[in-house]
Amino acid sequence: MTFPTSVRLVEVGPRDGLQNEPEAIATATKLELIDRLGAAGLAHIEAASFVSPKWVPQMADHREVMTGLTRRNGIVYSALTPNLKGLEAALECGVEEVAVFGAASEAFSQKNINCSVAESLKRFAPVLERAKAANVRVRGYVSCVLGCPYEGEIAPAKVAEVAKALFDMGCYEVSLGDTIGTGTPLKAKRMLEAVARDIPMDKLAAHFHDTYGQALANLYAVLEEGVAVIDSSVAGLGGCPYAKGASGNVASEDVVYLLDGLGIESGIDLDKLAETGHWITQAIGRPNRSKASVALASR
Amino acid sequence: MTFPTSVRLVEVGPRDGLQNEPEAIATATKLELIDRLGAAGLAHIEAASFVSPKWVPQMADHREVMTGLTRRNGIVYSALTPNLKGLEAALECGVEEVAVFGAASEAFSQKNINCSVAESLKRFAPVLERAKAANVRVRGYVSCVLGCPYEGEIAPAKVAEVAKALFDMGCYEVSLGDTIGTGTPLKAKRMLEAVARDIPMDKLAAHFHDTYGQALANLYAVLEEGVAVIDSSVAGLGGCPYAKGASGNVASEDVVYLLDGLGIESGIDLDKLAETGHWITQAIGRPNRSKASVALASR
Fold first, then answer.
1. Is A184 in contact with B262 (Cβ distance < 8 A)?
2. Does residue A2 belong to any structural domain of this protein?
3. For the whole model, what pTM was predicted?
4. Contact flag A217-B219 (C-beta cutoff 8 Å)
5. Angular region, A238: left φ>0, alpha ψ -120 to 50, beta rest
């Protein structure tokens, strides 16, 4: 057991959390959310996705979001850029970090981005090259690391292979996504151990969904292994597109409560974060999926 | 790390889960719930509470429940009996196991049962004596083991002291309750270690609430220490009386999903259990608080 002394949270609420919302959310609301998250101490915020509005209409205002946000000192505002076109647009907006999105499941890759895993990695190569030339860091996501909605079980070796490819290509950090939340702690540990054979632990992030209520147990298990970067979403924004009505991203507030209890530094003010969660869920008419936040507010 | 190979779940839904419901629930509904839980593989079900209907009106039909249930082979149906009067009534109903309820917090004991912790233990002595004479096992609960709504932090030594008193008095098992769900994994481990200095690990149970979303992480942490008995409530029935609208008991379905994933035997059929959770929450008009169950139903 080698708990980290501090953990960096990557807040994905403004992107992963909002991207599937059916009703248009005002750019001003997104900007206020990002600003409030920064004020609560989140030092890494994924702010937008530079994808075609044909696929993700909710992210159509990515330019307005990236250029409209008030930059706070020391905070990284990143954006998802699945291809060169998205990257160029993001660069025009002065983005300093981008992310690419691969899968550990062939079936998921085919259904989600209409190509094989190998083909998707090939497509990322020019993105990484261009980003490097522009001095912009690239984060790599691997989805389906603990299960796939189409294939079921995913071999840890397959996750390790895709993660290594992204790392070797130049991603400074690889985020391991339990996209459908089916993982449990020992599976999470075994998967992480397989990946960490090729990639240093401090270059790995855990991106776990709470669909089956297991996210915090899984996070605790990988914290024991030394993972020091966690992706989460304020108020658990996002839901699960593969199980209607079910939870998706683990709530940032619940993660911070866990870290506070473990004595692990995150730099985040839980009360301010909880306030932000209550504000955004009221603003967009969604339930607050953070249990810690609901409990704190109802004492 | 010494994970148990099997875990016994103590299902507290029919008692702890329903006791605070404001609307009367038909005895027939309670009996059907208990029967369905048994059919799903729950081998230990806390079925009723022999307290004054003045204090807990929902449990006023305790006699009808205890005498009306269809006993299945190998299943223990227990009842809460806070005093000798309750125990006598339970014995008349042919109960084979009862439980007494102490607190690790002086303030909680005063507010909840109107006497000091020491006084409450004294009052249990004749209950244990009488139960022993009747050849009825007694389970001991300790509440507030990871925090108190009035006192805040509770010293592990205080928990150990109360648990030991109950064990020495003749309780065959002591259930450690995080009544307000404020615990986190390392606190849970430290508390358990303190208690396990005096009581063998196989005589201890974890009764954790999910009010702050931490229950499953805490359970995983104490499973690592070897705890092999877990209290839970189907569909997370119960809520938290100290934080309105917040979660209470951890959902049995989420615990079983965790155990299945860890390869720990529980003897429970998750699908049947989930079905029971959907049935009872619809029957009493409550949200289903089991994330695993909601996810399984919405795939």
1. yes
2. no
3. 0.97
4. yes
5. left
Q: What tokens appear for A67 in the block? A: 């250029």
B168 domain-assigned = yes
The verdict on a CB contact (< 8 Å) between B298 and A210 is no
**Structure confidence by residue, pLDDT tens digits, B167-209:** 999 999 999 999 999 999 999 999 999 999 999 999 999 999 9
A246 contacts in chain B (CB < 8 Å):
291, 294-295, 298
> Which has the closest alpha carbon to B50: B83, B73, B21, B77?
B83
B227: Cβ contacts below 8 Å, ≥ 6 apart: B4, B192, B201, B204, B205, B206, B219
Dist. CA B126–CA B149, nearest whole Å:
29
List of E strands, chain B: 8-11, 44-49, 76-80, 97-103, 137-143, 173-178, 204-208, 229-232
Of the candidates B154, B125, B155, B151, the residue with the CA atom closest to the CA atom of residue B138: B125
- Beta-carbon neighbour count of residue A20 at 10 Å? 14
State how many domains chain A has: 1
The per-residue pLDDT string of chain A (299 residues; one tens digit each, 9 = 90 and over) reads 689 999 999 999 999 999 988 889 999 999 999 999 999 999 999 999 999 888 889 899 999 999 999 999 999 999 999 999 999 999 999 999 999 999 999 999 999 888 999 999 999 999 999 999 999 999 999 999 999 999 999 999 999 999 999 999 999 999 999 999 999 999 999 999 999 999 999 999 999 999 999 999 999 999 999 999 999 999 999 988 888 888 899 999 999 999 999 999 999 999 999 999 999 999 999 999 999 999 999 88
Is residue A3 one of the residues assigned to a domain?
A: no
Among the listed residues B93, B144, B171, B240, the single catalytic one is B240
d(CA B84, CA A129): 77
User: What span, in angstroms and rounded, lies between the C-alpha atoms of B227 and B201?
Assistant: 6
Query: Three-state SS for A76?
Result: strand
d(CA B228, CA B266): 10
Instruction: Evaluate the CA torsion angle B254, B258, B260, B266 in order and state its sign.
Output: negative
Cα A276 to the chain's mean position, in Å?
18
Using alpha carbons, select from B196, B174, B245, B187 the residue that is nearest to residue B215: B187
User: What does the radius of gyration of chain A's CA atoms come to, in whole angstroms?
Assistant: 17
Q: Which domain holds residue B144?
A: 8-297
What CATH number is attached to the domain comprising B135? 3.20.20.70
Chain A neighbors of B251, CB-CB under 8 A: 213
Distance CA B131, CA B95 (A): 10
CB B21 within 8 A of CB B58: yes
A281 shares contact with chain B (CB less than 8 Å): no
| Chain B residues with CB-CB distance to A290 below 8 A | 213
Q: Is residue A58 part of a domain?
A: yes
Structure tokens at B165: 């008193």
Nearest to A185 among B220, B254, B298 (CB): B220
- A240 annotated active-site: yes
Distance CA B245, CA B156 (A): 29
